[in-house]
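Schema walk-through. Below, the input block comes first and the output block second. Nothing else is stored per chain. Lengths vary across the set, and this one has 199 residues.
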Amino acid sequence: MSKPTTLRPRFSLVLYVVVAVMSVIALAYCLVIPEARDSFAKVAPIPLLILGCGWVLLAAPKLVISSEQVAVHNPFVTTRVPLGRIDEVETRHGFVMYTSEGKVQAWAAPPPDRLRSMRYFEQKLTRGDGFQDPRIARDKFGQLRSSAAPGTLSGDAAITVRHHGAEASTEPITRRLNVVNLVVVVATAVGIALTLVLG
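--- output ---
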């Protein structure tokens, strides 16, 4: 059995860490500096909102691809799809798997932004289309979409799933709520409410 591949947007994770550190500094400043304690109730809701919602939307989503299944950890629901249940993989609007039960979209594998797409096409024009791997999906004209290109989250996810291709299966697709993320959202709301009421 091979080691599972985990994909998550690196920029989102870095952004969350930077903003979380700034939020913690703002909260600590309001608690430690005597002159700022009076403004704690006015300032605290914003850092608390950033910490809670940032975790759920930026840091927690990920896509884990193993030789048996694809686990899509979206903000509030985790969906586990056995490889044999995947009928088709699409990358046009991010990584999407189509199954007999409908589609499963991965929050953590979006298509590249415009700048990255433009860089990809500039590279293709100057160096040629060097992506000859048959696992890379092309459109009906044989062209490679930027969202399916190696090095993009959606493209890497699609290539990895195609690499692990499996026989048709009847294993169930499972969905479960992300309890930790729900608790974080509720705790954030309660924390904001308490600071507003007690402040």
